[in-house]
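Putative ubiquinone biosynthesis protein
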Amino acid sequence: MADLHADPTLDEVRAHLAPLLPAHAAFDGWSPEAVTLAAGQAGVDPDIARLAFKDGAVQMIDAWFRSIDHRMAEKLPAETLAAMKIRERITELVWARIAIVAPDREALRRALAILAMPQNASRAARMGWRAVDLMWQLAGDKATDFNHYTKRVTLGAVYASTVLALLDDETADLSDTRAFLERRIENVMRFERFKADFKARAEHRPSLSRFIGRLRYPAI
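Tokens:
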């Protein structure tokens, strides 16, 4: 990890400490103590570190999740993804996130418990949307219509369920989680094929509105 420069902003302090937080949060929770320990590990003034995370646990978790976004993007650059089909891109992007969080499963459990609290629901939803939106952007999605939203909702469900599978996975190589992800992606692909087929058939179906319009306004 590169050192911070002499006069960092609070945003820079948060980004610098974020990857270190889960190792301490696993034992001390998402707490000021975890911030202090991460600051000591990174050689950052603990008072500045605590100021950077003055809003508490959710701010710490948000910073960690942002660091996962960055690491995922670094792990799968554009030139790597370009050589893959869309299904492979999405699968590997989800898997990259899983591989990043896997060593910190206890911290992840604690984070999810905090985000599940009613007062944190909207913040948790924004974090989830940010993650799936980035995955689709990295995968090359250019949709601007309703599909833009349905793709992200669907991927959000896939990612969330895969994270839960990870938390219960006792295999050394996470093979159970990988198999679960592959099954979920296959289910999504089947649904997308069904939607495409349905749309194609609908284009050739008689239109009830056009038929009624002809009854009211017959061609002369």
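The chain has a mean pLDDT of 89.
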